[in-house]
Amino acid sequence: MSLRNRFWLQSLRAGGALAAIAIAVADVAPAKAQTVRNYNVQFTGTAPTIDGVVNAGEWANAATASGSWGVLREAEGELDTDGNRFRMMWDANNLYVLYETNFNTFIDPVDKIGTPNPNLNFGQDNLNMYLDPNTDGGPNFVDNPEDNVDGYQFAFNQYHDPDGGSLTSTNANRQGVGIYTEAHANTPFGNQANWGGAGATLVGGEAMQNIVVSQRNGVSGGVAEVVFPFANFNADAVTPGTTDAADFDSDGLVDGDDFLIWQRNLGATGQTDKSTGDANLDGNVDAADLDAWKTAHGTNTQHITGLNATSGVDPGDVWFFNMSQINNSGDPNNFLPIWNWHSQQSFAYRPHGTLTFLGAPAAAAVPEPASLALVASVIAGMGLMRRRA
């Protein structure tokens, strides 16, 4: 069976809608050392206009990522034939991404006016980005690629505006363009780190918040401009991990909060789970459950996600990053072009490429008060000399 045929479609139910996601069967050998690409993200003092148009000079501070993309689930030498490429810049508040492609068989959204917030359709053409601020210092390469994978997955359908303009997608008006958002913690699928808040409808893209995507696609190719406010990298800093029987609130810690739960419910009967303090699940909250809490007190199974990065970046910071296009409908012969190719079956797996943030100008030095006083006295003296002349 070919690599391309060794993937299956998993349906996620969210808000009553189904979104088909191509998930690979990772039946390959343990990972081996592979090339990790790096892109230097330069600081900019002038933000680009996110309108789907590459205006003169606005991306001048950003070099195009060098080298051809590979094709996921194919041999390493299989190269992208659609000319996919990107550029990036950053400032104190935002990360800016420009994506361009020679791919040109875009379709219209189903209904950009009547369906302003559709689910993303992985059965059509879409662009996926994977970003890991890696504040936990996790490895880029592990023996089992499904373990310890943290990152934000952001995807959107690539459509052509039937009116010939740009489709600009915001949280308030997505112009019929489906958006997909997840924050993975210790696994490549799911929203364990609650991007957009607990219970967010992921395929509806609630985690977009202030993220804006503007794309202009046509017969000459495609352009997408994206702005990610650093404030949007606000997934949970920790996730519960495996919880103990005495971890009554299931937050990964057996601590005083769990004792208070037991204390408030002491004497309760007919309980059906541990959430009220019934550690031994005999239906009663009693002294035996307190003994279980005492034994487990101090247990901590919380997993640091490495994702929360709302304070932005400093020069020299390195993030993990990958980008892939899914050509399900427009170019099945070039199915999964990907920036940092690897031998695994999903772009969420590592190794990813890296982003190195460079170029922020140093803050101007603020003179000491004594220096300011000296400067003032010199200026005053110069004025006195002029009056005497």
Walkthrough of the structure:
There is one protein chain. The protein is of the alpha+beta class and 389 residues long. It folds into two domains: 36-237 and 305-358, Immunoglobulin-like (Sandwich); 242-301, Dockerin domain (Type 1 dockerin domain, Orthogonal Bundle). Helices cover 10% and strands 25% of the residues. The chain has three helices and 17 strands. The chain has helices at 256-265, 287-296, 369-388; strands at residues 7-14, 17-24, 38-43, 70-71, 85-90, 94-101, 126-132, 151-157, 167-169, 179-184, 212-218, 221-229, 238-239, 303-304, 318-326, 337-338, 353-358. The strands form four sheets. An eleven-stranded mixed β-sheet has the order 9-11-12-6-5-3-17-15-7-8-10, with no helix packed on it. A hairpin with a 3-residue loop joins strand 5 (85-90) and strand 6. It is elongated and about 75 Å long. It starts with 6 loop residues before the first strand and ends with a helix.
Q: Main traits of this protein?
A:
disordered N terminus; two-stranded antiparallel ribbon; 389 residues; alpha+beta; 11-stranded mixed beta sheet; Type 1 dockerin domain
Number of strands: 17
Q: Name the CATH class of the largest domain.
A: Mainly Beta
Number of helices: 3
Give the CATH topology of the largest domain.
Immunoglobulin-like
Report strand order across the widest sheet: 9-11-12-6-5-3-17-15-7-8-10
What is the correct CATH architecture of the largest domain? Sandwich
Along the chain, the helix and strand elements come as EEEEEEEEEEEEEHHEEEEH
Question: What class, by secondary structure content?
Answer: alpha+beta
Largest sheet: 11 strands, mixed
Gyration radius, rounded: 26 Å
Could you tell me the strand content as a percent range?
25-35%
Number of domains: 2
Relative helix content? 10-25%
Distance between the termini: 97 Å
Residue stretches low in confidence (pLDDT < 50, at least 5 long) are: 1-31, 382-389
* Shape category: elongated
Mean pLDDT: 84
